[in-house]
Amino acid sequence: MKTIIIGAGQAGLALSYHLTQKAHQHLVLEQSSHPGSAWSARWDSFTFVTPNFMTELPGLKLPGDPNSYLARDQILAYFDQYVRTFDLPVRFEVQVISVEPTPRGYQVDTADGSSLEASNVVIATGLFQRPKIPAFGGRLPAEIAQLHSTHYRRPEALPAGSVLVVGSGQSGCQIAEELYQSGRRVYLAVSAMGRVPRRYRGYDCFYWADKIGMLDRTPEMLPSPKMKFAGNPQVSGAKGGHNLNLHQFARDGVTLLGRAQDTHNGKLILAPNLHETLANTDRAELSFIKAVDAYIEKQGLNLPPESVPQLRDGLDQPQILELDLADAGISVVIWATGFAYDYSLVKLPVTDGDGFPVSKRGVTDYPGLYFLGMPYLYKQRSGLVGGVGEDADYLAQHITAHP
Predict the structure, then answer these.
(1) Alpha-carbon distances, residue 61 vs 56, 77, 131, 198 (angstroms)
(2) What domains can be seen in the chain, in order of their start residue?
(3) pLDDT at 320
């Protein structure tokens, strides 16, 4: 085999498309029974945050309104259609457990005991690899249910009682919003995430993020290398797309908390940083708006000005340093604390101290070994469904030019 791609998410499919166009022999191995399995693990009402015009894989247009947002089942249907349309060579229900170098390339071992050899291997295993749950979660009272956001499905599936959501990125905010709108009492331990308006001056925030160059930032352009691990800004694609604003959450009855630090004797220990975090979130939105306004002025665009409401309700809430979980009636904790990368299947030193792949635009120092589909693997857009095609095209050209 010339090339093996591990993973049939958006990255693996986009690369398979480009290699197919070049008549390059390859095989995609996917541990699930269908493509895009990471998206099937999201909650029932999950909707893409990126609008449809930024959610297309190379070669296949999305039907319908380009300014709407795909729901979970629509995402999966699109990926299925993609595989069928281009007759991509995907082999399902094959779990890869190791990739080792050989004199002729790489040996790929699978969980069923079989082995394959290839000149090239591309690791396209996605963003959502290993759920992160803080160690202090193990000290919570046994009667409190715990689940990571990837295992949340719907409010009715949770035990009765109040819910503590830890983490205020896109997933945490969307889950918290769904829960309190369903009538649940919700406590939300916030984290350092920015906020952007869903639409501003007539266009979607992702349209503006593209225009002002945010999505084309490379790691070298960031103030700190650690910023490539920052979560995505608070915004939702549900119900036609709308803003997510922690101050509105507070106005609607959600109890906002500072960063969750520890647990002790049935109490959640919290950092005194709630108001600071809210202020930073507000500043992120204002910074985005300022950048968009500057772009509009520079380009001479005839777009009417817009004023974004500046709420302060969260700043009026007291900073709670200890939360008695029993007194609050909390029956379940949802950890919206993100994911850790896990590339241990590659039996070579291919990651840095943060577990991030060491490469130049996905090309490693080991001939024939590649990575694809991570944010900031080349640019910020490298992790987006509609952005990975650019990197996939580059790797396809590199693979076929370096036999």
Answers:
(1) 6, 13, 32, 23
(2) 3-129+341-401 (3.50.50.60), 132-335 (no CATH)
(3) 97
